[in-house]
Amino acid sequence: MKTICFCNSAIAWGGGEKWHLDAALSLAGRGWRVFLLCHPRGALYARAREQAGTVRSVPLPVGRLSFLNPLFMGRLIRFFLREKPEAVILNLPADLKSGGLAAKAAGVTRILMRRGSALPVRNSAFNRYLYGRVITRLIVNSQATRRMIFRNNARLLPPGRVSVLPNGLDQAAFDQAMDRCARDLEKGTLRGPLADLARLPRPERPLVLGNAGRLNRQKGQHLFLHLGRRLLDAGVDCRLVIAGSGEREGELRLLAGRLELEEKVLFAGFQEDLSCFWQAVDLFVLTSLWEGFGFVLLEAMLARKPVLAFRVSNIPELVSDGVNGLLFPLPEEERRNAPDLPACDDWGRSFPGMEMAEEVAKLSRVAERRQAMGRAGRAFAEAGFSQSACMDRLEALLK
Fold first, then answer.
1. Taking the chain, what is the end-to-end CA distance rounded to the nearest angstrom?
2. 3-state helix/strand/coil string of 177-228
3. What whole-number distance in Å separates Cα of residue 244 and Cα of residue 272?
4. Same domain assignment for residues 140 and 180
5. Is 320 a domain residue?
6. CB-based contact 276:193 (threshold 8 Å)
7. Mean pLDDT throughout 166-179?
8. Are 290 and 313 members of one domain?
9. Where are the alpha helices (DSSP H) in 234-326?
10. Residue range 256-262: average pLDDT?
11. What is the pLDDT of residue 357?
């Protein structure tokens, strides 16, 4: 039986952690013996432990300087020598430093780094060694991420050792969850403000705009709130739903109050299953200042929701302007909050601009256009992002 180790020491849950867990479970289902090395305080470790019969979770409190600790590194090297993995897949820079060096010392022949953030790699001697001499293949989730890898050093590693592998979705499981949610809403067994909003009859109900993601500076939910204020001032009857949790929640609630949106915005909190969220919203607005992939965009498309987003990072690889959604310039004033973005990104003069508000207002009046965009998004997501196809490509890289 082939053995593989995933090393992801992130504390919070995000797209990278979802990818590692989904990939681990998929490979386990294909006959691999799978280890997940995670930080014991991390969300990934908690979820991995729930899959104890499928994957083996190993608590590994990796820190930024753990690679300098000989006791820690000795323990990690011995683990790799004992379990003899055919491959190790790493996530964070700290994982690369500790796990990558330990795997190399233990003689692991396939050391892969998955990079999911479209941000540059610092051009240091240590990074040149890690990328050029330690990892045997770099996996990136988009062409935008690939470009950013080489931004500070075009020779960081041979281009032939970089593979683009987009995130995949279990489309059958997604549809089943949506169907269950629809039945539960109809039966009245789902409770709470989000379920109440989802049950409001169409087309009489207000236009519902949704945003989902961790509540942090990168995701830019403050711009979503300003958009809502602009729409209400323009006479568009709308409601806002923000799904997610994070360090900016208090700040965003205060902003909603200053914008007099208390009765118009629902902070739905972290949603383990976004099915009810998708049942509730009419449009999905991603206000990220930058992205690695934007996994939630694919979910929105599978749910047949038109998507609105900024023209940054890899988002234009997913959103075809005017077809399955709409793209807008990122506000110039947000440059300070989006470090290291390339100069070629499209910067707008201000936000919320009239263009986005006007386009949303138009969509609110033309249900047929929203439905056409939703169908186009569904077809796009189905065509190239199935979990099975993505795992076929991952297994090919592991040979």
1. 14
2. HHHHHHHHHHHCCCCCHHHHHHHCCCCCCCEEEEEECCCCHHHCHHHHHHHH
3. 10
4. no
5. yes
6. no
7. 93
8. yes
9. 249-258, 275-280, 295-302, 315-318
10. 95
11. 85
Measure the CA–CA gap between 322 and 373, rounded to whole angstroms. Answer: 8
Domain count, the chain: 2
Looking at the domain assignment, is residue 53 inside a domain? yes
The tokens for 272 are 């383990």
* Angle subtended by helix axes 171-187 and 295-302, to nearest 10: 60
Taking all residues of the chain, what is their mean pLDDT, rounded to a whole number? 91
Coil vs helix vs strand at 253? helix
Do residues 22 and 147 share a domain? yes
Mean pLDDT, residues 328-343: 66
Residues 127 and 259 in one domain: no
Closest CA to 370 of 297, 295, 307: 307
Q: Are residues 137 and 255 in the same domain?
A: no
Looking at the fold, whether 181 and 121 belong to one and the same domain comes out as: no
What does the pLDDT average to over 246-250? 94
Q: Is residue 399 part of a domain?
A: no
Report the alpha-carbon distance of residue 73 to residue 66 in Å, rounded: 7
Helix ranges (H only) for the chain are: 15-29, 43-49, 70-83, 93-95, 101-105, 125-129, 143-149, 171-187, 193-199, 221-233, 249-258, 275-280, 295-302, 315-318, 354-365, 367-384, 387-397
Whether residue 321 sits in one domain with residue 196: yes
Mind listing the pLDDT tens digit for each residue in 180-219?
Answer: 999 999 999 999 999 999 999 887 789 999 999 999 988 9
The residue from 165, 183, 214 where one domain ends is 165
Confidence class for position 349, pLDDT limits 50, 70, 90: very low
**Which range among 74-78, 118-122, 151-155, 268-272 shows the weakest confidence by mean pLDDT?**
118-122
CATH number, domain containing residue 146: 3.40.50.2000
Encode pLDDT of 323-335 as tens digits.
Answer: 999 999 887 777 6
Question: pTM for this one?
Answer: 0.83
Q: Average of pLDDT values for 261-280?
A: 95
pLDDT at residue 385 is higher than 80? yes
Query: Which residue among 147, 165, 183 closes a domain?
Result: 165
Residues facing 320 on adjacent strands: none
On whether residue 396 sits in a domain, the answer given is no
Asked if residue 178 and residue 151 are part of one domain, the reply reads no
Domain region containing 340: 171-384
Write down the pLDDT at residue 337.
62
Token pair recorded at residue 60: 């590994």
Nearest to 243 by CA among 198, 273, 202: 273
